[in-house]
From TrEMBL, chains A, B:
Quaternary structure annotation from Swiss-Prot or TrEMBL: Homodimer.
InterPro entries: aa-tRNA-synt_IIb (IPR002314), aa-tRNA-synth_II (IPR006195), aa-tRNA-synth_II/BPL/LPL (IPR045864), Anticodon-bd (IPR004154), Anticodon-bd_dom_sf (IPR036621), Pro-tRNA-ligase_IIa (IPR002316), Pro-tRNA-synth_IIa_bac-type (IPR004500), Pro-tRNA_synthetase (IPR050062)
Keywords: Aminoacyl-tRNA synthetase, ATP-binding, Cytoplasm, Ligase, Nucleotide-binding, Protein biosynthesis
One Pfam family per UniProt: HGTP_anticodon
Protein name: Proline--tRNA ligase
Job description of the protein: Catalyzes the attachment of proline to tRNA(Pro) in a two-step reaction: proline is first activated by ATP to form Pro-AMP and then transferred to the acceptor end of tRNA(Pro).
Amino acid sequence: MRLSQAFQPTLKEVPAEAQIMSHRLMLRAGLIRQTASGIYTWLPAGLRVLRNIAQIVREEQDGVGAQEVLMPTLQSAELWKRSGRYDAYGPEMLRIQDRQKRELLYGPTNEEVVTDLFGSTVKSYRELPKTLYHIQWKFRDEIRPRFGVMRGREFYMKDAYSFDASYEGAVSSYYRMMLSYLRIFRRLGIKAVPTAADTGPIGGDLSHEFQVLAPTGESEVFYDSRWDEIDWDKEDLDGNRPEDLKKLQDLVSTTYSATDEKHDTAAWEQVPQERQASGRGIEVGHIFYFGTKYTEAMGVEVSGADGAAFHPHMGSYGVGVSRLVGAIIEASHDDNGIIWPESIAPYRAAILNLRSGDDTCDALCERFYQCAPDDILYDDRSERAGVKFNDADLLGHPWQIIIGPRGAKNGMVELKERATGERFELSVDEALKKLGLA
Amino acid sequence: MRLSQAFQPTLKEVPAEAQIMSHRLMLRAGLIRQTASGIYTWLPAGLRVLRNIAQIVREEQDGVGAQEVLMPTLQSAELWKRSGRYDAYGPEMLRIQDRQKRELLYGPTNEEVVTDLFGSTVKSYRELPKTLYHIQWKFRDEIRPRFGVMRGREFYMKDAYSFDASYEGAVSSYYRMMLSYLRIFRRLGIKAVPTAADTGPIGGDLSHEFQVLAPTGESEVFYDSRWDEIDWDKEDLDGNRPEDLKKLQDLVSTTYSATDEKHDTAAWEQVPQERQASGRGIEVGHIFYFGTKYTEAMGVEVSGADGAAFHPHMGSYGVGVSRLVGAIIEASHDDNGIIWPESIAPYRAAILNLRSGDDTCDALCERFYQCAPDDILYDDRSERAGVKFNDADLLGHPWQIIIGPRGAKNGMVELKERATGERFELSVDEALKKLGLA
């Protein structure tokens, strides 16, 4: 995309209510604009990031056998009356009446819809296990929306739901999903640590939150640094092999992690000192086993091997896709702007033409641009070099391809790696090769 | 995907309220399930079609320089009061009150939001023209939702909005968008004809609907068969060249098409008899120039070359993405089920293993399946051959790869092309080649 034509409005002055860094940077860099309290329009660069994250989530969910559906945003209140949650759910639920005076609601979560869908389609234990997921807009009527997309009202979320014939099966589904989540966060280029969470009346230990480590996180996280070191892509764990899931389960139970709320100093002291790590955490995911709570309440049964009907065991698994955009910026920025991990950057590189209009510069820029016009933002504006440097740093492209008249004449360009600030003076061919464009 | 594991529930008996063929087939084939009146969940196969259509629309919108954003589903009533439409819009608008008693609504269309967004970001004529689009869920509270996704309440739609400095610029944007639409429908594998539509108080001739030709269409369409013949991908028309847009404009004005409402028998008789074609049409798109209606009402101005502020000219351009799924089925099915155009089929092929459990059959099926597991539905169930034939015809995969014990022993498979019913007895290598898998 050529910046002279792009809908890529940056902001000089940020509204005072944008208190945290990610909110300020998302407004300044032109990723989002607010349209109503806690409700945002995603501008092209922001939407690209949102879609890149969603696609990684999708691939890793598919990778463990979860199947994608799409449930609607509006739900019938009827279903929530069947589960008993309609009256229990507080004022965060947006309740709606249609022209026929029927009660609808904007889904804040989808246990009811998916349980009903499952009940109307799956009849036999032979069809289990099944895990369904979708990536859909949801609404929670926060009393005080703030922090931009981190605590908005309309938000984009991946939620998955597993159905199993037994508790043991549900435990496998749970750890299969944990494996998927660990791979998702690894691919997103951020550090995320699973920490034990409340299980409430369900009991047991099958509830974990995933904390992205960032200085502005809402809770303190204590963890064994092995969590940082394991490359879940390279780990040879197959979500379809029960023994691999058992291995993961053992690893989770023997590798310390906890938020301050649940911190256990005695267990912590067992972690070798050189592996004791800590940081602030932003919750971006939650996985949870809740047994037969909804299948019982909603009367959903399937027939077992012995012919007798039973209520399947369920778990639910969420990732805050729009929240992640904010969380990743909190985890990855500096004073000059955003530093995107390569896997989700809106553009892999920016070309900074330091003298637009100069034939040599223009031709060389064009040569780079044509290698990947969808994946490069070409700053072809007739602005001063300083403006271009600042905007590229603000937008946070992993690479800047800096082309000025002196270098261009000699067939040289400068590459700057945003994350490290490192600069490389290279010939055109070397630069193309380094960027993977040749 | 292996059918034994897929969430792919077919239905034997279809609810009586499903009157039209596409609705019946979408339920029977397991593409959608209703969750509330006029509100549907998209099951995996249906979602794949929906996403394939959206992706083609996206590529062709990007192809003419439109830029993708994502506006929220919920909008502030405030914006609609500024445009004057809040009270004028009828009971099809779903009006909502949040916990703070602020008025929201579920967007039925986005002129207000996009005009406000434009006004807050674009300040100078130098930034024009600009066309923004998004693909988002919308809601219209139909009094009598019916025909499945063809007239649902929550529906998925691409809507684009152009902003130009002058009427002449707006005409270019209009025909650029028409070119994009003609390419979209061509790639979707359906016949679609643009027909002149009402322009209301705006006047002029810049309003066209796009009619998919299908026997169950709501209106009669009379058209010059040149509309069927032109391959818009091959036509060397560049949306950035004004002379090409003029060529398209001339072509539109000299190539007859009209719905019965606007049929002009005198003009019709000028069309050579061998080119007089007609059929029933389902409206799936609408493009419309409406001038400065919203920019004036909402006080949106940009500064001109002479320094004076002016109201940009706008047009809006819609494609009913979820509606298209139904419309395409109406246009492309037979007594046995759906016939998907290749470009949007949920799976390109099905493998029918006529003897699951037989080593030779299983191995050969596996060989085909591993070539493209994401794009092939492998019927590995232990069902009778007849059941597999019926389900494959119902689901409408462009190709069936039929593997039985006798052929398999001799390294032969049968390919069936769904659209023509043609069958090919081929060696494994020939079959792989014909399917583009080798």
